[in-house]
Amino acid sequence: MESIQSIKQRFGIIGNTPSLNRAIEKAIQVAPTDISVLVTGESGVGKESIPKIIHQLSHRKHNKYIAVNCGAIPEGTIDSELFGHEKGAFTGATQTREGYFEVADGGTIFLDEVGELPLTTQVRLLRVLENGEFLKVGSSKVQKTNVRIVAATNVNMFEAIDKEKFREDLYYRLSTVDIHLPPLRERREDIHLLFRKFASDFALKYKMPTVKLTDPAVQMLTKHRWGGNIRQLRNIAEQLSVLEQDRTISASTLQNYLPSANTNLPAVIKTSKSESDFSSEREILYKVLFDMKSDLNDLKKLTMELMKNGNTKDVEKNNESLIQKIYGNDDDNDTSFKEPIENNDVISIPEHTPSDIEIVNIQDKYHFAEEIEEEETLSLHDKELELIKKSLERHNGKRKLAAAELGISERTLYRKIKQYDL
Ligand SMILES: Nc1ncnc2c1ncn2[C@@H]1O[C@H](COP(=O)(O)OP(=O)(O)OP(=O)(O)O)[C@@H](O)[C@H]1O
Ligand SMILES: [Mg+2]
Fold first, then answer.
1. How far is the CA of 228 from the centre of ligand 1 (A)?
2. Where in the numbering of this chain does the Sigma-54 factor interaction domain appear (predicted)?
3. Structural domain includes residue 207
């Protein structure tokens, strides 16, 4: 069996804490089996290496390894991504498509952020875990696949089970073996080691001398709470490597790079009460605006849904009146709203719509709605961005907490982070 040290080298894993070694050892032990593994641990602790180790040390290593970020795929398409779909299964399904479970037959699938899977997908996953069976979306033909599943999560799955967001039976099926990666603050002896490795990597990358820490700086680094774990440590090593002229980093320089709310120092009292009151009021206002935008989007979605499903004159009439209700009357026949929109896919008018004139009408209304939405978006965009940034900062980048505070799902937050490139 390959030694733990050579595995670490092969997969670029730094550290020597017993709890880290135990996690890697467990991965080595379970690799040759087909047992499902659940990797747990806070964000940024290095969960992504474990499924790679498991795959590479298994008899599946010559077959596919597919990593799926369950939190990043929209709910509407995730079943089709994972299990494929039949031609015509839904609007836009012009071809039969293989899903990851078909493509990875004989290999390994890594389901990252598995706690984000919608409940309907969880049912499909349970079936595939239990007997290797699955159905493409829109098909009634049972297919077989032989896939080893490694899942990961940085959220408390028991909480998710309690809130009925995650199936208990699936949880136990996924976590036959649980591999837990410790947070960095429980691996203090690895912190400086990791920093030195990152500093030397970045020196190479940016062709500059390696930054070094003074002893007090090392102490400060080691005592820090590291809410974002190794990812955060790596970011700070990169910033120091790029920005600091003096390559010897003192504690006071380092202090500037560590988020203050995140240190182990006693809480700092806010400078001015009125200032903090103002900022909290502003945040409430942002939240209201944010919620309003969500509502607006929901309404838009509902409208689109009704339009999609409707295939009789009556329903179309209802759609029109619904739009009027939501967006007001546009009896003034403003021609600027009359040009038909280009992307007809968005509405997908049924083919047997009674007459062309009605199609144009519906599109006009839709276009009108889009114009209003655009204006709203322009004014809300910055607010939303700022609110998300603030919330993420407050929670040291922990999406789960930020999402809870913002009152949106982690999935939505994830998409917004991608969208705004945060
Ligand atoms: N022991 C380690 N040695 C070197 N680099 C590491 C180690 N652990 C993690 N890293 C690095 O830290 C970063 C974050 O790791 P990773 O993406 O695996 O986190 P994660 O646990 O999947 O977090 P999340 O739950 O947020 O997805 C990566 O760049 C990874 O290479
Ligand atoms: Mg990850």
1. 10
2. 13-242
3. yes
The string of pLDDT tens digits covering residues 182-203 is: 999 999 999 999 999 999 999 9
Total tally of structural domains belonging to the chain: 3
Mark whether 104 and 139 lie in a shared domain.
yes
Sheet holding 65-69, edge to edge: 65-69, 108-112, 148-153, 37-40, 177-180
The helix/strand/coil state of 289 is: helix
Ligand 1 atom at shortest distance from the alpha carbon of 153:
25
Do residue 22 and residue 150 come from a single domain? yes
CA distance 241 to 376: 42
Helices (H), 340-398: 356-394
Assess whether 231 and 243 both reside in one domain. yes
- Nearest ligand 1 atom to the CA of 112 is 27
87-125 pLDDT, tens digit per residue, is 988 888 899 999 999 999 999 999 999 999 999 999 999
Q: Residues 42, 43, 46, 47: what is their CA dihedral angle, to the nearest 10 degrees?
A: 70
Q: Which residue has the tokens 């009125």?
A: 274
| pTM, rounded to two decimals | 0.66
CA 47 to ligand 1 centroid distance, Å: 6
Ligand 1 pocket by Cβ (under 6 Å):
12-15, 41, 43-48, 154, 194, 230-231, 234
